[in-house]
Amino acid sequence: MNQFDEQLAVIRFQPDEEWQHVLILDDAICQKCRAKQCLTFCPSGVFRESTEAKQPLMVLYKQCVECGGCRLICDNIDFSYPKGGYGVTFLEG
Amino acid sequence: MLKHWYQAKKIVESEKKSNIEIDTSNVKKYDVVVVGAGPAGASAAYFMAKQGLDVLLLERGPFPGAKICGGTSLIAEHTHKLFPNFWDECQCERIVMQQAYWIMTEDSLLSTSFQSLKFTAAPYNRFTVKRRVLYQWLVDKAISAGVTFQCNYKVSEVLFDGSQAIGVQISPPQKKQFFADIIVLADGANSMVAEKSNLIPRVSPQNISLYVKETIVLPANVIEERFQLAYGYGSIIGLLGYPTAGFNGTSSIHTFQDSININVGMTISDFSISGIRPYELLSRIKNHPFIRPLLVGGTVVEYGASVIPEGGYYAIPEIVHPGLMIIGDAASLVNGTHGINLAMWSGFFAAQAAYESKKKRDFSAKKLFLYRTLLDESFVMQDLKANAKIAKLQQDLPYLFDLYSKIANETAFQVSKVYTMPKKAKRIFIFKKITSMQPLLKMASDIWKVIKVVRG
């Protein structure tokens, strides 16, 4: 387990199995995108490169900490907050 | 630059038409619906209910404060004026007796620190608090004043009749609609409700900062030893320079009762263009030779991230609309380290405006503009105005924090170092050393720019 996985492991999540709140709008844009700023920007590593050419990015929305920054750096990311009661829970301030 | 300013100022004129069917028959109508149970929303709800308004407070998390993190200080005077002797009611972590700034490079640390026992008696100065505790306390106050509170309710958008806000739509699973004469949006920095309802433009990534934090558990006496604190008292330390790896931004350490909160942040646009992973920036600070010893033996119990609006005065959007007010972080009311207290005051002012509107049964933007007027006349806007150019200065001088931390540390090093050369030669040597880092004229111009901003 690397250090980042340890950091993720201490966050409490109530994942919504039915509905994904972070989406890639158009995979074709990701195929052409060279910068892929989402890969480094996301503080909880929601966006991962995949091996599939058709769908270059995986969205691990269940580990999203809901800062909502991704929607501001890329127009191809459709972010909305999870449904009421789902998602991350912070206890320690 | 101009583009961002223009976008922030631009009044959104697009048709506020929602494709959701509105059914107002046979439903209860509240006086006010407040979206978001943070310090802004809960304070607004509390002061409204205290004046006899029928208020519904909605929160998307399972409890107040569940969706936000980051080191928190509660400023005593601001809070005391709104909630007299709050320190007897709200459980605070530590009374802050020491405030420090550490200007850092990779191998040096120049610190300015002030501590005083004057801060340890009422009316105090600052407290560290856990957000969950503070927010819950405010919501409990609101509930006891008569507010109806609902958790796990996420508002997806505002409902309009023409341009008049008349209610809110709750997203699934509840799919409900709530109606009120006045809607108050207090949904935080990333105010997607206001944006989706075409009330404010999309916030610029230059005007909003991403912060990541870790909470590290340590025994209370160890914290007091390591930070040289008297029993039960706390410290807030701002870290500048090294922590943000060459960019403008800040980092800080907050001491809680038996844990430490360490955070670092810079603007979203800086993070995205730098390619620096936020959590790597945080571990880089934790591994600094002068920070690591403070954290030894601690257990990381929580990692998190959140955004803070830092665009200052010029980034404040239109905050009064027909039947609707935007308060707190959603209205970009953050001024340096002041956020929570400005949020509470904006809630208080919104409550005055709501009460006056209700009395006259006039819910137009003109009547609700009292909120903006009260804000403008208060310290909130006056302080924001005084600091208005800081955001722009940081964009104009992207090297400001990094270079001057290095210069400060280099100067301190050379002054501290004992040479065999004569004093006069040493002074010339130091002068040459500093001016080799930044030419004298350039430095003078930077200092002048900073003075101009500080003078307002």
Taken from the alpha-carbon principal axes, the silhouette of chain A is globular
For the record, the CATH architecture of the largest domain in chain B stands as 3-Layer(bba) Sandwich
Domain count of chain A: the total is: 1
Q: What sort of overall outline of chain B do the alpha carbons produce when their principal axes are compared?
A: globular
Unreliable runs of chain B, pLDDT <50, ≥5 residues?
Answer: 11-16
Task: Provide structural commentary.
The complex is a heterodimer of chains A (93) and B (456). By secondary structure, chain A is of the alpha+beta class. Chain A has a single domain (3-90), classed as Alpha-Beta Plaits (2-Layer Sandwich), CATH 3.30.70. Chain A contains four helices and six strands. Chain A has helices at residues 3-9, 27-32, 37-41, 70-73; strands spanning 12-14, 22-24, 47-49, 57-59, 77-79, 87-89. By secondary structure, chain B is α/β, with parallel strands linked by helices. Chain B folds into three domains: 27-90 and 130-203 and 313-377, FAD/NAD(P)-binding domain (3-Layer(bba) Sandwich); 208-309; 391-455, no CATH class. Helices cover 37% and strands 25% of the residues of chain B. Chain B has helices at residues 2-9, 39-50, 76-82, 131-144, 192-196, 220-226, 268-274, 278-286, 292-295, 340-360, 365-368, 370-377, 379-386, 390-396, 400-416, 423-437, 440-455, and strands at 29-35, 55-58, 73-75, 94-104, 109-115, 126-128, 148-150, 155-161, 164-170, 177-185, 208-217, 233-241, 249-255, 259-267, 299-309, 320-321, 324-326. In chain B, strands 3, 4, 5, 6, 11, 12, 13, 14 and 15 form a nine-stranded mixed beta sheet that branches. In chain B, strand 16 (320-321) and strand 17 (324-326) form a beta hairpin. In chain B, helix 2 (39-50) packs parallel to helix 10 (340-360) and helix 10 packs antiparallel against helix 12 (370-377). Chain B: Residues 395-455 form the FixC-like C-terminal domain. Chain B: InterPro entries: ETF-QO/FixC_UQ-bd (IPR049398), FAD/NAD-bd_sf (IPR036188), FixC-like (IPR039651), FixC-like_C (IPR059103). Chain B: Residues 233-308 form the ETF-QO/FixC ubiquinone-binding domain. Chain B: One of its GO terms (molecular function) is oxidoreductase activity. Chain B: Belongs to the ETF-QO/FixC family. Chain A: InterPro entries: 4Fe4S_Fe-S-bd, Fd_FixX.
